[in-house]
Amino acid sequence: MPDEQLAPRGTDPAPHGEPGPDDGSGAGERSGGTGQFDAARTPGTGAADGPEEPPGAGAGRGHEAPAGAGAGRGPDGDTRPPARPLDAIDRDILRLLRADGRASIRSVAERVHVSRGNAYARINRLIEDGVIRGFSARVDQERAGHGTIAYITLKIIQDSWRTVREQLQELPGAAHLALVSGDFDVLLLVHTQDNRALRDLVLTRIQSIPEVVSTRTLLVFEETDLEPEL
């Protein structure tokens, strides 16, 4: 789509690459519900013989982050203590759970060659440290009825990032949001049902935000999800 330039609003937009003093702030984390790892709060890596798996662990559902996981992270930064260093076993556990979030404690322990108690305690620690933020299904957006994908770039009024972020997070189909440097200030990834829904989202919802100066919409023809190496 071409540039969707808005009429001047009487306020100077942020200079390119200078989105304001909020640069680098991130959205608050959403914590999961109380989950199956609540029972084992043993710090460290655990003893050789740990607790048994909770009934039904890994059967038909994924591990869930305990209530409050990620708490302490405010909208303007992370106030939690730094995460503890990861060793090779921690990274192996993360790879396994990223590939199959429904894997049982027994399965994880066997594949990384540690006791169930050790695996249980390690996963708890990864959740408490915020390394694991939750467990969710990976959805094929096209098969789920969202056949149109687009990146939308936005130029916004200086010092308006927090306000704009809150409004963009509420948009239907918003999948990723970032404050960036360069020729624009914000990068937004959206999934919509079709091009008509995308047009309405841009022209009706996004451009009605007072702090948005202009937008540009980039249709995605094909995409591939990549997993960064741990």
Percent strand equals 15-25%
Order of helices and strands: EEEHHHEHEEHE
**According to CATH, what is the topology of the largest domain?**
Alpha-Beta Plaits
User: What is the average of the pLDDT values?
Assistant: 75
Instruction: Look at the structure and give the CATH class of the largest domain.
Output: Alpha Beta
User: Helix count?
Assistant: 5
* Alpha carbon gap, first and last residue: 36 Å
Q: Which architecture name of the largest domain does CATH use?
A: 2-Layer Sandwich
Strand line-up in the sheet with most strands: 1-7-4-6-5
Number of domains: 2
Give an overview of the whole structure:
It is a single chain. This protein is of the alpha+beta class and about 230 residues long. It has 2 domains: about 5-25 and about 140-220, 2-Layer Sandwich (Alpha-Beta Plaits), CATH 3.30.70.920; about 30-130, Arc Repressor Mutant, subunit A. Helix content is about 25%, strand content about 15%. It is built from 5 helices and 7 strands, in the order βββαααβαββαβ. The chain has a 5-stranded antiparallel β-sheet with strand order 1-7-4-6-5. Strands 2-3 form a two-stranded antiparallel ribbon. It starts with a strand and ends in an 11-residue tail after the last strand. Mean pLDDT is about 75; it is low at about 5-75.
Offer a quick outline of the entry.
The protein is of the alpha+beta class.
Strand and helix map with partners:
Elements: E1 3-5, E2 73-74, E3 77-78, H1 88-99, H2 105-112, H3 116-128, E4 148-156, H4 161-169, E5 174-179, E6 186-192, H5 195-206, E7 212-219
Biased composition (Basic and acidic residues): 75-87
Biased composition (Gly residues): 23-35
InterPro entries: ArsR-like_HTH (IPR011991), AsnC-type_HTH_dom (IPR000485), Dimeric_a/b-barrel (IPR011008), Tscrpt_reg_AsnC-like (IPR019888), Tscrpt_reg_AsnC/Lrp_C (IPR019887), WH-like_DNA-bd_sf (IPR036388), WH_DNA-bd_sf (IPR036390)
